[in-house]
Amino acid sequence: MPAPIGFLPSGPRDSITDVAGVTVGHRTLAAGAVQTGVTVIRPHAGDAFRDKVPAAAVVINGFGKSVGLVQLAELGVLETPIALTNTFSVGTVATAQIRACVATNAQTGRSLPTVNPLVFECNDGWLNDIQRMAVTEADYRLALVAAAREFAQGAVGAGRGMSSFQVKGGIGSASRIAAVQGRDYTVGTLVLSNYGKPRQLVLAGQALGDRLAAKLSDAESAEADQAEKGSIIIVLATDAPLDARQLRRLAQRAGAGLARTGSVFGHGSGDIALAFSTAYTVPDRPERPMPAVAMLHDGLLDSLFQAAADSTEQAIVHALLRAESVTGRDGHRRPALAEVLALS
């Protein structure tokens, strides 16, 4: 395992759930040609429709099919947990999020406003028979119920069928602690890693691309010469009191961590970062009082920006090193990076 990224300390789990209240759950489908799943990030244990959290997203490169970004950009809050899945399952998972909200809030879309589902995707079609649309609404519900502070990383949940740098990608997470005027704040990151060409790979500052490319088979090398068609979804959580505008600035710094791994945000890549804060919640109805929160001054955000970049890079490293080899559709196989390069 490479040395930890950067100079900031990590939280006790070195994961997004080091931010108090945040939990993560998976539902993994792994049977023959079906290699896919769902991952759910809950910002708190309550009802996200009633008690929204401030959030913002940045589209680094927009080759993607996510749901919910327009209203998120306008209102700056999350109304549901964040769901990750494969490209063709976005609609199913969004429907499951709506049904979950209606089950808890029976007047949703009637006397209450409609809910804004939030689903991000990457294309896992190399390993997964994406045309089967195997993910069901029940799979979302199971991932939601499974959400906990301890969770698996690698080829699990939405990451089951994902590829990075022509090897196995998937779910990775990390955290960093940033000091601001004598107080510690946590930035935690979770990535769905499905991007990168072999010669681009930089792992913890080591340029391993040529070494990786030389180890791949002729077929894999020919595939690697094609245009970038991958994606990455980056979700950052923090307990720092930030508003939606500041969270957008924090999300932008995830791009610095992504670039350190060798990514150039290729034409066919869907690269999206979202940041949310757990420091306060926003009530759903105007008759409920708004929180009185003192936000951090913009001039104090640099350590949080550092934490965002470092935890993003670290999360990608974890995704690459914790993913097992997977064989899926039509015998397609993605070996684990550690297997190809004999890393330990």
UniProtKB/TrEMBL annotation:
Domain of life according to the entry: Bacteria
Pfam families: Peptidase_S58
GO molecular function per UniProt: aminopeptidase activity
Gene3D superfamilies: L-amino peptidase D-ALA esterase/amidase
Family: Belongs to the peptidase S58 family.
Protein name, entry field: S58 family peptidase
Organism in which the protein naturally occurs: Xylophilus rhododendri
